[in-house]
Amino acid sequence: MSHQPPDPRVIVSGMLGDERLLRALADRDMGTVFRMLNSRGVSTRRLAAAVDITQGRLYDYMNGKSRVEKLTLFEQIADAFHIPGHLLGLARRSWEPAAVVTEHQRTGHPPPDGDDLAAMDHFRNADRQTGGGRLYGAVVRHLSDRVAPRLVDTASSPQVFAAAAALTEMAGWMAHDSGQDDLAGRHLARALPLARTSGDLPLAAHVAASSSHLALQTGDPVAAVEWARTGLELATQGPRIPALTARLHTMQARALAAAEQHAPAARALEAAQRDLEGGADAEHPWLSPFDAAALASESALILRDLERLDDALQHAEQAVALRETGRARSLALSQISLVEIQVRRRELDAAVHAAHALLSTSPTLGSIRVVQQLDELRHLLEQHKAYRPVPEYLVRFDDARRARMLLLADLIPPSPGGTPA
């Protein structure tokens, strides 16, 4: 029986979870895409013929001498290799199955556009695994090319404003994950009025929760408390979504704990636990999930700040155990919290053991936020260098950090002096 050449569409289908491919698609780096397909057995002749270019032009793309720039060629590549349109900032392709959209009757709003919702879900799933730095540009392009033009169309439904709000909020998270908090704040500031214009109060509350988180991360617990309170007020005016109010109470608890308001923080955390245990009364298409793993992760941080380290350890261990392998960033952040709490409890053997496991967690993860928290963890461990396993671990940590920073060099924002931070 004759050997059949590999079908590039089948190869691409099997690579859609590959971080390098997702990063190349997000960056519209077609040279890397062509090289990856070629390395998996697709001949350059077949690659060139599939997208109707000469082999000479293909070699220029593969060697980095030129880049694909024309929209029509991106569309030809997507269609030839069955690359989902949203991964290249394109509309859903004609061969892609239409997204199944559930009627959200409890919200009182029509269902969102299937293309927008499918793009949101794909961006969200990729972000969990690869980090926001790798996807930020693709989300912004999707917003500007596919969503923004419809905002000025008088025939557009309010759901267009909801899609714009949700994707703008996502862009804010990705900017935060990339270490660009000022940019993240600007995105979130735009997302809230878009959500209000859509009439989607749960979405507006969701944006307020993200604003609370960002305020806390930038050292303003007072603003974080106010944003959480605003979100809870918005949430009570819409359909009951326990996961949303649980997230808002959690943000409120974190901010209060950071402000050393221990009793109110404990009450807010209890309210979050009650909300999440109360079950889901309504679903919402635009809200990112807030589940038991997320609550456990946040609870560990709250209880740490409340100086309840035994309880904090229990929740940190639960968060690591609940995190799925596909949630690389969440797993890394939960592991960092676990090590930190073990160090604070002076359980140095357990801390070093968990810290070694942490170094092998997604070294290519495009998250500057994870790098920053790793650096904070290193500073904490350094205070215990008298214990011999700690300095031995720090040598390995520094080697792993150098390798990680080389892989993330393209994502690190320039410092005011013009050199990478």
UniProtKB/TrEMBL annotation:
It comes from the Bacteria. One of its GO terms (molecular function) is DNA binding. It comes from Streptomyces shenzhenensis. This is HTH cro/C1-type domain-containing protein.
